[in-house]
Amino acid sequence: MNSQILEIIRYATLAPSGHNTQPWKFAIKDNTIRILPDFARHLAIVDPDDRELFISLGCALENLVIAAQQMGYADETALFPANDPDAIVVRLNESKTKSDSHLFDAIPIRQSTRNEYAKQKIPTDDLQKLEQASQAPCISALLFTENQPIESFIEYVKEGNRQQYADKHFVEELIQWLRFNDDEALQRRDGLSTRCSGNPSTPRWLGSFFVGGSNGDDQTEKDAKNIRSSAGMMLFVSERNDKAAWVETGRAYERYALTATTLNIKSAFLNQPIEVPTLRSQLQTRFNLAGAYPQLLLRFGYSQVMPRSLRRPIEAVIGRG
After folding, report:
1. 277-286 and 147-165 are packed helices; what angle lies between their axes, rounded to 10 degrees?
2. Distance CA 41, CA 18 (A)
3. Residues 6+ apart with CB under 8 A from 39
């Protein structure tokens, strides 16, 4: 296989995904790459419609396009063509024009940073850069820095945690994807490493015991503290609620995240209010979204770098076709 195309795909796999499931496969034929959902890695409880899965594919697509442009390719991208309805099809053509490298350079150092932030305001110019990076057709990114809406988000996150942790199937699925110690993380190279959240390494039986016995209060307290330490929050919404809109949401988010990385701004998801259908509807009303669909909720601010989540080897996600 073309080594340059393999390297482009490696950059694509550095995208974020729910529970770090890495729910993607890549099929290569000549200079065409098909990005496919790996439904064996979908989250049946927290993401039953695969909405977050396709957002993750959008993040991977954006990384892939940025990497391809940096390596001298122009892309022709088709989302879910009629003859290949589950695929994102990217055809790469050689080009003499390279993209600006600052987003490309940010791909390997971007991370979801889940610790407490520095309670420091972000300059207006940088906030504008984040907003500009997040815009896309049919996608809007709403930025919040005032106390009142942020406190409202805390209440929605609190209720999301309460409802999710009351569902034993949610807790079982979460435990399945938690990596409680370094040995588990290194062996699987996926999932949510507790070290990345600032928690100590523990045996699986002990970590499972504590998570399985939680009613969500500890998580809510931690989330509230982390939100209040942040410079602001951002809500991504879309005009439609279908696979294409989810992919475009992922692309817009990844541009935001890479731009934030270049500005030394960290961020972390707080999607509980969007994952619970009744709360998602309430968000539409509370924030006057006029029929737009909430897709992603995150906090952002300044913080130290945390340990990075791992990725599976490239051989595990590619094939021909």
Report:
1. 170
2. 10
3. 23, 50, 53
Q: How far, in whole angstroms, is CA 270 from its chain's centroid? A: 10
Residue 1 clears pLDDT 70, i.e. is over it: no
Contact 191, 19 (CB under 8 A): yes
Q: State the pLDDT at residue 321.
A: 63
pLDDT-based confidence at 98, cuts 50/70/90? confident
Q: Each residue of 74-87: pLDDT tens digit?
A: 999 999 999 999 99
Report d(CA 316, CA 298) in Å as an integer: 30
**Cα(36)–Cα(77) distance, rounded to whole angstroms?**
13
Residue 39 per-residue DSSP state: G
Q: For tokens 């619970």, what's the residue?
A: 276
Task: Tell me the domains of the chain and their CATH numbers.
Answer: 3-108 (3.40.109.10), 124-301 (3.40.109.10)
Spatial separation of the C-alpha atoms in residues 299 and 230, rounded to whole Å: 6
| pLDDT (0 to 100) of residue 198 | 81
Mean pLDDT of 274-285: 97
> Which residues fall within 8 angstroms of residue 208, CB to CB, at 6 or more apart?
175, 180
